[in-house]
Write a structure and sequence with these properties.
The complex is a heterodimer of chains A (250) and B (113). Chain A is α+β, with helices and mostly antiparallel strands. Chain A contains nine helices and seven strands. Chain A has a five-stranded mixed sheet with strand order 2-1-5-3-4. Chain A has a two-stranded antiparallel sheet with strand order 6-7. In chain A, helix 2 packs parallel to helix 6 and helix 6 crosses helix 9. In chain B, helix 1 crosses helix 3 and helix 3 runs antiparallel to helix 4. The chains are: A alpha+beta (250), B mainly alpha (113). At the A-B interface, helix 5, helix 7 and helix 9 of A face helix 1 and helix 3 of B.
C-alpha cells in the first residue's frame, strides 16, 4: 500500500458569532491534511487541533445525510464530497448562499422546511383500501417514473445555486417542487390537484427561468430542472383546459 | 395563492423553443452552403419563392418566424430577470411588443408574395 501524502492546506473560513460580531469576517487557517481527504476532514482537523470554536454541521461523511452543504470556492458543495485534491491554493469556505447565517458555517433551513411542507411531499392515496386487500403494487416502469426524484437528500445545495431563489425568496424552489413532482408521478398518488395550488402559482414553477444550476450542483444526481419543466407543461395544459375549454376542469 | 396565468406566454415560448431547436441549425447550415455557392438544387430561389407563395407554405413560415421571435423575446426576458434587472413589466412589454411587431411584419411580407 502506498503511504498517504501529506499536504499543508490553507483555508479561508467565513466566521460569524451573533453574540460578539456585527458582521461576518474571513479567518485564515493552515492545517496539515492528507491529500486524499475532503474539505470536511480539513475542517474537523481545524476544530480538533487549532480552533474548537469553529461551527458547522455534518453527520454521515458519505454524501447521504445532506447536512454539510457549504460554499466551497463559491460553489455549493457537500464538504464531505469536496476532495482536497481538486483544489489548489487557498480554499474559501462560506455558509450556504441564500440562507440566513446562524453562526459560522451554520445556516437556518427554516424557509426550506416550511416550503417542503407546503407541497405535501407524501403519498396522498388515490383511494384508501382496507389492509385486508393487501399492498399498493407498482410495476418497475411505474417506479422508474419517479425514482430519480425520490433521491433528494434535502441538502439545499440547489437553493444555494438557484439565482431565482436568491433574488425572489418567496420562490418555492427546486428541491421542494421536485418532491411535489415525485409524488405527482407516483401511480399510488392522487394528490396532484392539491399540490397544484402551490405548484401552479407564480411562486411555484413559474418563478423558474430554467437556469439549470440546480441540476448541476445536485450531489444525488436528481434533475430538479427537468422536474420543473415537466410541471410547467402539465400546469400549462391545466390552464388551457380550465380557461379555453368550456366547462373544463383540470 | 392564486394560480398563475404564465402559461399564456410560456406555451408559445416552449413551442418556439422546439421550433428553434429543429429549424435554426438547418437554416444556419443552409445559409453557409448558399454563401459558399453550394445550395442544393431543391432549395433554389424559384422553388423557395413558390413555397412562400403557397398558402400552406405561408402558414409554416409564419409559424416558424413568429414562434421563434416570441421564444427569443421570452428567453431574453428571463435572462434579464436572472441578471437582476427587476423591471420585469417594462422588459416584458418591450420584448413582447417587438416580437409581435416582428410577427405582424412577417405576416405582411408573406401576404405580399
Amino acid at each position: 500500500m502506498t503511504p498517504l501524502k501529506e499536504r499543508l492546506v490553507q483555508l479561508e473560513v467565513l466566521r460569524y458569532n451573533p453574540d460578539t460580531d456585527t458582521e461576518a469576517h474571513f479567518q485564515h487557517y493552515e492545517v496539515v491534511c492528507q491529500e486524499e481527504w475532503v474539505v470536511l476532514d480539513a475542517l474537523n482537523k481545524v476544530k480538533a487541533d487549532i480552533d474548537p470554536t469553529l461551527n458547522y454541521r455534518w453527520s454521515c461523511h458519505m454524501a447521504v445525510c445532506g447536512s454539510c452543504g457549504m460554499m466551497i470556492n463559491g460553489e455549493p458543495k457537500l464538504s464531505c464530497h469536496a476532495f482536497l485534491r481538486d483544489y489548489q491554493g487557498v480554499i474559501r469556505v462560506e455558509p450556504l448562499a441564500h440562507f440566513p447565517v446562524e453562526r459560522d458555517l451554520v445556516t437556518a433551513p427554516d424557509d426550506f422546511m416550511d416550503k417542503l411542507k407546503r407541497v405535501k411531499p407524501y403519498v396522498i392515496p388515490k383511494e384508501m383500501k382496507p389492509i385486508s386487500e393487501g399492498e399498493y403494487r407498482q410495476t418497475p416502469a411505474q417506479l422508474m417514473k419517479f425514482r430519480q426524484y425520490s433521491m433528494c437528500i434535502n441538502c439545499m445545495l440547489c437553493y444555494a445555486a438557484c439565482p431565482q431563489y436568491g433574488l425572489t425568496p418567496s420562490f418555492i424552489g427546486p428541491a421542494a417542487l421536485t418532491l411535489a413532482h415525485r409524488y405527482n408521478q407516483d401511480s399510488r398518488d392522487g394528490g396532484r390537484k392539491e399540490r397544484q395550488e402551490v405548484v401552479a402559482t407564480h411562486e411555484g414553477v413559474w418563478e423558474c427561468t430554467f437556469v439549470g444550476a440546480c441540476s448541476e450542483v445536485c450531489p444525488a444526481h436528481v434533475d430538479p430542472a427537468s422536474a420543473l419543466q415537466q410541471m410547467k407543461i402539465t400546469s400549462s395544459i391545466d390552464w388551457i383546459v380550465e380557461h379555453l375549454i368550456p366547462g373544463g376542469k383540470p | 395563492m392564486t394560480k398563475s396565468h404564465k402559461p399564456v406566454v410560456w406555451f408559445p415560448f416552449a413551442a418556439g423553443g422546439t421550433v428553434i431547436a429543429f429549424c435554426i441549425p438547418v437554416i444556419v447550415v443552409l445559409t453557409f452552403l448558399a454563401a459558399l455557392g453550394h445550395m442544393p438544387a431543391g432549395l433554389s430561389y424559384e422553388r423557395l419563392h413558390a413555397f412562400a407563395a403557397n398558402g400552406v407554405g405561408k402558414l409554416v413560415l409564419f409559424g416558424v418566424i413568429s414562434l421563434s421571435l416570441w421564444s427569443s423575446a421570452h428567453r431574453l426576458r428571463c435572462t434579464c430577470y436572472d441578471f437582476g434587472l427587476r423591471a420585469d413589466t417594462l422588459v416584458a412589454t418591450v420584448l413582447y411588443v417587438a416580437a409581435i411587431l416582428g410577427g405582424i411584419a412577417a405576416a405582411l411580407f408573406l401576404l405580399r408574395i
